[in-house]
Amino acid sequence: MARRLAIAAIAALALTGCSAAPQAEQPPSSPASEPIRVAMLLAGSSDDGGFMESGYRGLQRAELDLGVKISHIEGVKPEQKQLEKALRDLGETGVDMIIAHGGQNSAAAEVVSAEYPQIQFVVTQSGVKGSNLSSYEVLQEESAWLAGAAAGLLTESDVVGHMSGIRPVPGLKGRAAFVDGVKHTNPGAKVLTNFSGDQDDVALAKKIALAEIEAGADNIFTMLNAGRPGVAEAMKETGKARQFGNVRDFTQDDPEIFVGSAVADSGAAAFSAIEDFVQGDYKPEQSIQIGLENPDAVKLTLAPDVPENVKNEVEKLSKQIIEDKIEVKTEYNGPEFEVS
């Protein structure tokens, strides 16, 4: 696997609304040949405030910075048959590259890429490869590990929480890394971890957050998309606990609720794949990784009120991960926190 050493930041961009059909946006005019056409599949909403939005911003940036012509399908349920259908719909449009955003697309992309050998396929947050298929991954487990380390230092109850929805491999790695980070700085702390089955259900997220808070969690790491506000509601109602976000810097939104954020800008993976393709550097059968050595894409941010000694320790630990002095564990075999 190749590890990407430099990548530009994904700029904040305005988003369009949802649609269940391919949506074409007009790129800047090209003075030379016909522009490269790139399509993206989102198994969610482009304005979910999290993972899917990050990927879509990467696509938009490619349109603005690289002059590609873009289209996308969103709102597809993360079920293989539906993902395959959406990928085939995009394949029939005759684009040059299709980006399936998120590891939940891995199996579908392996099937459909073989049906369209003339199109290059990329899955973000995955490790799948094929004759016309590559993966580009931001190592969210590295920032998740730092979030766990910070949670272990900050907890007063010695109980912290983790919440996610579905179980793609990157999400499982992120959970394992978070738990490992907690154990590194606070071996005696207890971690409550839950996968609810839904990334976007606000009411369900609130219910689980309330249960984890009731069980003593005072810091909760949320790997959610549109469901994330439910956790904030639970925290505001109880006046207890704070949240570590992921994907982007949520401390900029509400530093009273978000004590930190495990930034893993998945849009950087999408943009990097398109940039390589435009510049002639793209190769199939590769797995490209982007980690903490690229702080524009992967890092842990902390709220202003976090003590300096914690910030300094996190910075030190980040350098140790980059230097391979700390191994980030990506497998978890512990108990699950069940909510009836």
TrEMBL record:
Residues 1-20 form the signal peptide. It is found in: Cell membrane. SUPFAM superfamilies: Periplasmic binding protein-like I (SSF53822). Its main location: membrane. Keywords: Cell membrane, Lipoprotein, Membrane, Signal. Residues 37-329 form the ABC transporter substrate-binding protein PnrA-like domain. This is Membrane protein. It comes from Glutamicibacter uratoxydans (Arthrobacter uratoxydans). The lineage of its organism: Bacteria, Bacillati, Actinomycetota, Actinomycetes, Micrococcales.
